[in-house]
Design brief:
SLC26A/SulP_dom; about 65% helix; 4-stranded mixed beta sheet; transmembrane; single chain; 24 helices; about 500 residues; Transcription Regulator spoIIAA; 2 domains; alpha/beta; two-stranded antiparallel sheet; Dicarboxylic acid uptake system A
């Protein structure tokens, strides 16, 4: 027992994580448009492969609701057969980034972009799963899903089967929400699992006409990528999807790691090693043709809150998932699809950062705007381009804030007008600088003092020289320019 001092705590935590993982693994797979068993396979690999590796000791990996939209788009465009190749290449890229030490740089990604990404994903998941809860086919685009909801509700009202299906989905959400208000002893059973069990029992007891999960068997769904799937790599389209899988899965995993570190006092996450662990897991998932994995905050927080002390808990949860998938595949076939849709609607709702948006708006309106634009872009365009738009906005905002420049004009009524520029003069502030300089009287000499500038880019220097020539061309004295002092670093380079 001294060799495994925390065996009891880790064993009990693994049971809790397993019970949380089962409905989420199945639900994410079904929502992604792939067989339910592929979600369980990803969960198993997350436990047995990633779980054994160093990086973050207590966070748990598996299929994530945050990747659902991206996987569904990829499967729709390239087919299930190509999913393995996409996940495999994403895993190899993660391994390369981990070995090259790029993992820790993901912490530099703007939190607003990540929150906006999750918000956009949450909105698309909610809209799409409402159709699934009613047993209706959802439109393909994010905008189409949202705009089509009134029509979908109208169609559902005219169908008894659709209303029954919607009622099961709504009941599932109600159970998950209300479960947290029950005594702690009852809450030892995860709310999502309780909701699925109750929905399944209700469907069986009343012989309700709702669709259930289709079961193909664990070995039947494993499809290693074939030559045809690798042939897709010749086209440029699939590479954008591979990069999107890599960046979004990595960002979600490493942001989850930072969040999990705040929940416990144990060893801190080693980000590059965690990136390698995620890459190894996704490489194996790709070889099996399964869903991509990320670290999942829901399972990870359940693991910490259940008292886990070491990585043994997440490894054991992978063992329980394997035993369940191998010994009880028939149980999957009893689960009503609207119950899984209800779980994902709830998961999507939790991805929308209502409190963070309000807090950001009060303190940093620019960051709040980036969050909202990223979310809207994901809904309006697609996942990858929405995130790129958010990242581009974040870079522009940072560059704009870094280019603070101050122009002070002193006119004593006689003699030259003195203009002092200080700060960082970049092309972003060039229009403002030129407007102020061109407003100076044309018939007066000007002294332009640049000694207070920390940085003067080429565009600004060229524009200032052109302005000085134009001002001097009117017959006044040439503009006198006092250059900025060279930095100590520049002097050292010159001396060398």
């Amino acid at each position: 027992m001294t060799k495994f001092p925390y065996l009891r705590q880790d064993f009990l935590a693994s049971i809790v994580v397993f019970l949380v993982a089962v409905p989420l693994c199945v639900g994410v797979a079904v929502a992604s448009g792939v067989p339910a068993e592929l979600g369980l396979i990803t969960g198993i690999v997350g436990g047995l492969v990633t779980g054994l590796m160093p990086g973050s000791s207590l966070q748990v990996s598996g299929p994530a609701a945050g990747m659902t939209v991206l996987v569904f788009e990829a499967v729709s465009e390239f087919g299930v057969a190509a999913l393995g190749v996409i996940v495999l290449l994403a895993g190899l890229l993660q391994l390369a980034m981990g070995f090259l030490g790029i993992g820790r740089w993901f912490r530099a990604i703007s939190v607003s972009v990540v929150e906006g990404m999750l918000c956009g994903i949450g909105l698309v998941i909610i809209a799409g799963q409402i159709y699934a809860a009613a047993g209706l086919k959802a439109p393909e685009t994010g905008i189409g899903k949202i705009v089509g909801l009134p029509g979908a509700f109208a169609d559902a009202l005219g169908s008894t089967e659709a209303m029954i299906s919607l009622a099961i989905g709504a009941g599932t959400i109600a159970v998950i929400v209300l479960w947290k208000k029950l005594p702690k002893a009852v809450q030892s059973v995860p709310g999502a699992l309780a909701a699925v069990v109750l929905a399944t029992l209700a469907t069986l007891a009343f012989s309700l006409p709702v669709a259930t999960v289709e079961v193909e068997g664990l070995l039947g769904v494993i499809q290693p990528p074939g030559a045809g799937a690798f042939g897709e790599l010749a086209g440029p389209a699939i590479w954008g999807t591979i990069i999107a899988f890599t960046l979004i899965a990595s960002a979600e995993s490493l942001f989850s790691a930072a969040a999990v570190d705040r929940l416990h006092d144990g060893p801190r996450t080693q980000y590059n090693k965690e990136m390698i662990a995620q890459g190894a897991g996704n490489t194996v998932c790709g070889l099996l043709g399964a869903l991509p994995m990320t670290a999942v905050i829901v399972r990870s927080s359940a693991n910490v809150n259940a008292g886990a002390k070491t990585k043994a808990s997440r490894v054991l949860h992978g063992v329980w998932l394997l035993l369940f998938a191998a010994a009880m595949p028939w149980a999957l076939a009893l689960i009503p699809l609207p119950a899984l849709a209800g779980i994902l609607v709830h998961a999507g709702w939790k991805l929308i950062p209502f409190r963070q948006v309000a807090a950001l708006w009060r303190a940093h309106k620019g960051e709040a705007l980036i969050l909202v634009v990223t979310a809207v872009s994901i809904v309006a365009v697609n996942m990858f381009e929405g995130v790129l738009i958010g990242l581009a906005l974040s870079v522009v905002k940072t560059a704009w804030e870094a280019s603070h420049v101050k122009l002070e004009v002193i006119d004593k009524g006689a003699g030259p007008i003195q203009a002092y520029l200080s700060g960082n003069a970049t092309f972003l502030r060039l229009p403002k600088i030129l407007d102020s300089l061109e407003a100076l009287p044309q018939d007066r000499p000007v002294e332009l003092d640049l000694s207070g500038l920390h940085h003067l880019d080429h565009a600004c220097r060229t524009a200032l020289e052109s302005w000085a020539e134009r001002h001097s061309a009117t017959g006044t004295e040439p503009v006198k320019v006092h250059e900025p002092e060279p930095s100590p670093e520049a002097e050292k380079v010159t001396a060398a």
